[in-house]
Amino acid sequence: SITTTSTQGNINIAITIANIHLRPPVNLDGSAWLDTARKTEPIRINEVKELIRRSQESKRTIDIIAGDFNEGDDSGAIRHLIQEGYSNALSQYVPRSKETHRWNYFGRVW
């Protein structure tokens, strides 16, 4: 994470941003099957839990968490961050038709 400080008059404002890249939904050998995303989801959930734990341990609140989550909008890692009080800016501000991470897979858009 990175913390930047800005001065507005006599007030210092600090914002901490974490840029993450969660584990891709592939097996350790690089292969992927229909159930690989589901099987690897707990790993990504644990990655964001560890990020939050380290943030709390260091007493540094992370204001923005951004990056490649390697999951869909309703995934476990996203749900966990929402439970922690974060917002999903992608679902709030980007129409689904404009999202860059969607693709057709067996007739279903993921």
Q: Strand sequence of the main sheet, in spatial order?
A: 1-2-3
Multimeric state: single chain
Shape from CA axes? globular
The SSE order reads EEHEHHEE
Mean pLDDT: 85
- Strand tally: 5
Largest sheet, if any?
A: 3 strands, mixed
Cα-based radius of gyration, to the nearest Å: 16 Å
Percent in strands: 15-25%
Number of helices, counting only DSSP H or I runs of 4 residues or more:
3
Spans where pLDDT lies below 50 across 5 or more residues: none
- Share in helix: 25-40%
Termini separation comes to 29 Å
- The helix/strand class is alpha+beta
What does this structure look like?
The protein is of the alpha+beta class. The chain contains three helices and five strands. It has helices at 36-57, 76-83, 89-93; strands spanning 2-8, 11-21, 64-68, 104-105, 108-109. The strands form two sheets. A three-stranded mixed beta sheet has the order 1-2-3, with no helix packed on it. Strands 4-5 form a two-stranded antiparallel sheet. The longest helix is centred in the middle third of the chain and has 22 residues, at 36-57. The mean pLDDT is 85.
How would you summarize what this structure contains?
It contains three helices and five strands; from the N terminus they run E-E-H-E-H-H-E-E. The protein is of the alpha+beta class and 110 residues long.
Any descriptors?
alpha+beta; two-stranded antiparallel ribbon; three-stranded mixed sheet
Layout: helices, strands, pairs:
Blueprint: E1 2-8, E2 11-21, H1 36-57, E3 64-68, H2 76-83, H3 89-93, E4 104-105, E5 108-109
Parallel strand pairs: 2-3
Antiparallel strand pairs: 1-2, 4-5
Helix pairs in contact: 1-2
